[in-house]
Automatic annotation (TrEMBL):
<dbReference type="InterPro" id="IPR036865">
    <property type="entry name" value="CRAL-TRIO_dom_sf"/>
</dbReference>
<feature type="domain" description="CRAL-TRIO">
    <location>
        <begin position="19"/>
        <end position="169"/>
    </location>
</feature>
<protein>
    <recommendedName>
        <fullName>CRAL-TRIO domain-containing protein</fullName>
    </recommendedName>
</protein>
<dbReference type="GO" id="GO:0005737">
    <property type="term" value="C:cytoplasm"/>
</dbReference>
<keyword id="KW-0344">Guanine-nucleotide releasing factor</keyword>
<dbReference type="InterPro" id="IPR051336">
    <property type="entry name" value="RhoGEF_Guanine_NuclExch_SF"/>
</dbReference>
<dbReference type="Pfam" id="PF13716">
    <property type="entry name" value="CRAL_TRIO_2"/>
</dbReference>
<dbReference type="InterPro" id="IPR001251">
    <property type="entry name" value="CRAL-TRIO_dom"/>
</dbReference>
<dbReference type="GO" id="GO:0005085">
    <property type="term" value="F:guanyl-nucleotide exchange factor activity"/>
</dbReference>
Length: 224
């Protein structure tokens, strides 16, 4: 992904990878799905790679992903799904603690798809009762994806969660690149237009059309 698609302040030489690099491994996703209450969804898919991302990289990635929904949607707060069906219970706690330490928005609820193996399921049944009170947000531990359907329509969930939402991560990244390039171009045009208008206001436009044209030509030549 081109570095031109970075969000403001996300590629400024801080520690670790920039947003462009952090989007590819799918540590977390903003698929565009909404809960039944129309709040946006952030998903932490079961890719067994979350332990690789550093705290500063995590902050950088979440700042970007939470900026993807509209301001109106983001102001309503987020639902979060943590899918760890193929992982260990300890990995669930890792994500929850990271979210507790930093999440750039209001968290309405966190849904945990707990590990499916017999041993990990037994651990989760004991541990989930103990840690729920540790967090300032609501945590719902789900034994299966079917339990998610009480809160999400299948049309808003991706196929890995048993849903019908058509989502290609590669296409999503390409769309974000195009959008970021367009946004950057619009900012540049707006900035140049502001500069030009200030120059027009500050200069003497003259008293006749010929003098005015000469001044405008002069301004144009300065930009070439």
């Amino acid at each position: 992904m081109s570095t031109e698609a970075e969000c403001d302040g996300c590629g400024d030489g801080d520690e670790g990878r920039n947003v462009s690099e952090l989007l590819l491994p799918q540590y977390a996703l903003a698929t565009g799905g909404l809960a039944r209450d129309h709040r946006p969804l952030i998903t932490f898919p079961d890719n067994n790679n979350f332990h690789i991302i550093t705290p500063s990289e995590y902050r950088r990635l979440l700042l970007y992903l939470t900026s993807v929904p509209s301001l109106l949607e983001a102001d309503m707060g987020f639902h979060i799904i943590i899918d760890r069906r193929k992982d260990r219970w300890n990995s669930v706690k890792t994500v929850l603690l990271r979210i507790s330490e930093f999440f750039p928005g209001i968290i309405h609820a966190v849904y945990v798809l707990r590990p499916a193996s017999f041993l990990q399921k037994a651990l989760s049944e004991v541990s989930s009762k103990l840690f729920k009170e540790e967090f300032r947000f609501r945590v719902l531990v789900c034994s299966s994806v079917e339990e998610l359907y009480e809160h999400f329509d299948r049309s808003q969930l991706t196929a890995d969660l048993g849903g019908d939402l058509q989502y290609s991560h590669a296409e999503w990244i390409q769309q974000r690149i195009a959008l970021e390039k367009f946004s950057t171009l619009m900012k540049e045009i707006s900035s140049k237009l502001d500069e030009f208008m200030h120059e027009i206001v500050d200069c003497d436009m003259g008293n006749d059309p010929t003098q005015t044209k000469d001044l405008l030509d002069c301004q144009e030549n300065r930009r070439v």
